[in-house]
Design goal:
The protein is 38% helix and 17% strand. It is an alpha/beta fold.
């Protein structure tokens, strides 16, 4: 029978999903791949660039443990770096006009984002893939979806930086392509602590299963 919902009811329901919602898919290690998003020198090395994310530097030990756990249970580890691809002609045109582009500061620093490398403490193994991506999300103009399909993986675990840009965009793109998304609450970082929780709330409600590093490791057993 049809019923009406009060404003208080729908607001309370929304708040509950933002804060405590849990996606209902199982995390099966044989179906998972770990995506380590943009843990590269430009974002992780202290004081190297104006794009340094201090929180990402602090996340390195915890991300390293998750990487090691995935390797132990044969979960593929795939890295991304944001770098020069095709002379920057393969990225959204409007990007150059965004406030997070700093032409005055970046001038004279031509080595930034030209040959970007994963932070040494998280160095990929020789047989692990490093995808060069031209924009925020790891699926945009990259072979990531094909790689995951060829690996037989339909669940992605997301770690890295930044939570509300590259990691969050990757989560949304994965969701829209039919992947289950596990988003690491304490193995992602951004440049504003308030934005960390805000992004987790949105992802938790509609895009991903949000878990801590310990919870992820436990579910991979």
């Amino acid at each position: 029978m049809r019923r009406d919902f009060t404003e208080d009811e729908v607001l309370s329901l929304g708040k509950e999903m933002y804060e405590h919602g849990q996606a209902r898919f199982e995390v099966e290690k044989d179906r998972c791949a770990l995506l380590v998003i943009d843990m590269q020198n430009e974002f992780v090395s202290p004081q190297l660039t104006p794009f340094w994310v201090p929180g990402a530097t602090r996340r390195v030990p915890r991300i390293r443990k998750v990487i090691q756990r995935c390797r132990e249970v044969s979960v593929p580890v795939i890295y991304t770096v944001f770098t020069d691809t095709h002379h920057f002609l393969d990225r959204p045109r409007a990007g150059q006009f965004m406030p997070n582009r700093l032409p005055d500061i970046e001038s004279g620093h031509n080595d930034w984002f030209q040959n970007s490398k994963v932070w040494p403490e998280l160095e990929p193994l020789k047989d692990e893939i490093v995808i060069k991506k031209p924009s925020y999300g790891a699926f945009y103009n990259t072979p990531l979806q094909t790689i995951l399909h060829n690996l037989g993986r339909d669940t992605v675990i997301i770690a890295g930086t930044m939570t509300n840009y590259c990691c969050g965009a990757t989560a949304r793109q994965a969701y829209e392509r039919g992947f289950n998304v596990v988003f690491g609450s304490d193995i992602t970082a951004t440049d504003d602590p308030q934005m960390q929780e805000n992004e987790l709330r949105v992802l938790r409600r509609g895009f991903a299963l949000v878990l801590s590093a310990r919870e992820i490791s436990d579910r991979l057993n």
